[in-house]
């Protein structure tokens, strides 16, 4: 069985990415390993008293993201594609590569949001970063507006 790591961010194009990954998984008899990387600063806020940490905000956000991951997993399983998921906090590129190695991934499937140029200069691109540094092949699914 082919192991596919599929990072998701719950953005508006996640459904298109899932559809592309499911199609690919069916073609290669693959298993999808969903991963969502949450930022480490979810519960922090800046106020009059400087930085403050609110653990309940972080806990609620993580709980909601797990619910979303479970829904995506069920959607993939409904297409008769084996699937599991993981939620971690940290630096997305590093966590995704660690997970891909842990799962002996054959592919990492990422979405291309059609951004380029100035966007990459100022914001960066996770997909672009992974394609440059990953020892595992990265399949880029075109995502259209």
UniProtKB/TrEMBL annotation:
GO terms for cellular component: cytoplasm. Belongs to the universal stress protein A family. Residues 3-142 form the UspA domain. InterPro entries: Rossmann-like_a/b/a_fold, Universal_stress_UspA, UspA. Keywords: Cytoplasm. Its main location: cytoplasm. The lineage of its organism: Bacteria, Pseudomonadati, Bacteroidota, Flavobacteriia, Flavobacteriales. It is found in: Cytoplasm. It holds the Pfam family Usp. This is Universal stress protein.
